Amino acid sequence: MNEIERLLAIEEIKQLKAKYFLGIDTHDWDLWRREVWAPDAKLEVPELGSCVEGRDTLVDWVMERSANQVSVHHGHMPIIELTSDTTAKGLWAMEDRIYRPKDHPDYADGAFILGFGHYRETYVKLDIGWRIASTLLTRLRVTRHRIS
Fold it and tell me: Thinking of the domain 3-145, which architecture would CATH place it in?
């Protein structure tokens, strides 16, 4: 892989992560399923004690947890390393804001959540483009507000 191809791959991975944020925040689950995740993808969220595997299972799990909540996710300062022509790993600083109505199943956990941390990811290039193979979300700080 030459330098131009390497830079192009890194830009494609950045665009992939932008689709990740767009899909989750707008609840565009078709975009998430079709353009973000590899078929055998894995999502780990240790603070929830969760590890979900398989694209369809993963998307359905996030879709259920995100029902009628509003979220705003930001990813910053990516460090992306190509490990081969078809694999890469990345680290993204992140901030997320989650707003839940009283009828949300996780409302007791907080009506408003503000989190800061990192996404540690692996990527795979398929015939259809780069996809997320695995994501580990770790938060360094979380603020929760409950409204009674």
Answer: Roll (3.10)
